[in-house]
Amino acid sequence: MELSGKTVLVMGATGVLGGLIATALADAGASVLGTARSNDSAARLPASLAQSLLLDLEDAASVQTLARYLADRPEPLDAVINAAGIVGFGTVEGTTLADAASLMRVNHLAPAELISRLVPRLAESAAAERQPVIVGITGIVSEQAFAGMAAYVASKTAHAAWLRALALEVRRSKVRVLDAHPGHTETGLASRAVCGVAPNFPMGMTPEHVAQVIIAAIIADETSLPSDRFAA
Ligand SMILES: NC(=O)c1ccc[n+]([C@@H]2O[C@H](COP(=O)([O-])OP(=O)(O)OC[C@H]3O[C@@H](n4cnc5c(N)ncnc54)[C@H](OP(=O)(O)O)[C@@H]3O)[C@@H](O)[C@H]2O)c1
Questions:
Q1: Is the pTM of the predicted complex or chain greater than 0.85?
Q2: pLDDT band, residue 206 (cuts 50/70/90)
Q3: Best substitution site from 21, 187, 205 to test ligand 1's pocket, by max atoms within 8 Å of Cβ?
Q4: Is the pLDDT reported for residue 186 higher than 80?
Q5: What domains, with CATH codes, occur in the chain?
Q6: Which residues have a Cβ under 8 Å from the Cβ of 224 and sit 6 or more positions away?
Q7: Mean pLDDT value across residues 44-51
Q8: 133-136 β-sheet, strand order
Q9: Is 228 left (phi over 0), alpha (psi -120 to 50) or beta?
Q10: In 131-207, which ranges are E strands?
């Protein structure tokens, strides 16, 4: 996929991976629309964005508002990259339904709703031979379960399965789906857990390395990015 001249939505552009990916895409000549969860966190959006948008995946009205705005926007939409997400820790019996529901909503249901609403825009991009792509970062947990994080693993595995089914549905309209499965990455995400306390993870990969592997796969028209592809 040629990035220059393309319009890309990066959900979670305030985050460490989202910020690096958004910046790299803008450096490659893409027009990048980036989302922040709130006006406060919008201060962390990269300066190179073409447009800053608000998206709170916990708020159904926020998802609908952004979906409507992007559906009606006259310019093409060529890629949707979901770098938003939350993590939570805790044993199965120690995790509340509220925390499990929040993980499922933010990591799977709400991004699935937004992406679904944007599929027609991406199909338009494909019809114009602009090689559109939908990118998820579900991580190694969608390949392998880990104790003490069942609710997170479940939310990411649900999203990975949904992306696989979506890929089959949109293949005919020539919309590509790429789900990245990086392992633990030193973004500080684990320290921002919405519940529980992170175990002592061994040192993870650098965010710069992980972002670079994902960008390279986007450019190379790849349709899968398993965890072993992130080995340095
Ligand atoms: N770090 C890892 O080890 C690792 C490994 C595999 C996969 N991943 C996945 O990679 C993605 C990026 O993670 P990261 O490590 O870069 O973490 P991060 O720096 O904490 O970024 C998380 C992003 O998600 C956004 N977000 C959180 N809750 C949201 C909500 N309710 N609505 C909208 N946006 C929300 C944050 O927005 P605000 O800043 O505006 O709050 C932020 O932009 C996540 O999906 C994560 O699960 C991470």
A1: yes
A2: very high
A3: 187
A4: yes
A5: 7-230 (3.40.50.720)
A6: 178, 179
A7: 98
A8: 51-54, 31-36, 7-11, 79-82, 133-136, 176-179
A9: alpha
A10: 133-136, 176-179
Nearest CA to ligand 1 atom 9: 137
* Mean pLDDT of all residues belonging to the chain: 98
Rounded to the nearest angstrom, the gap between the alpha carbon of residue 71 and the centroid of all alpha carbons in its chain is 19
CA dist 117 and 137 (Å) reads: 19
- The DSSP element (H or E) to which 209 belongs, if any, is helix 207-219
pLDDT tens profile 77-124:
999 999 999 999 999 999 999 999 999 999 999 999 999 999 999 999
The pLDDT score that the predictor gives to residue 167 is: 98
Pairing of strands 51-54, 31-36: parallel
For 184, 197, 207, the CA distances from 26, given in Å and listed in that order, are: 26, 35, 17
**Beta carbons of 225 and 214 less than 8 angstroms apart:** yes
45 lines ligand 1 (CB under 6 A): no
**What would the pLDDT profile of 129-139 be if each residue is shown by its tens digit?**
999 999 999 99
Question: Which atom of ligand 1 is least distant from the CA of 84?
Answer: 24
* Angle, in degrees to the nearest 10, between helices 110-127 and 150-170: 20
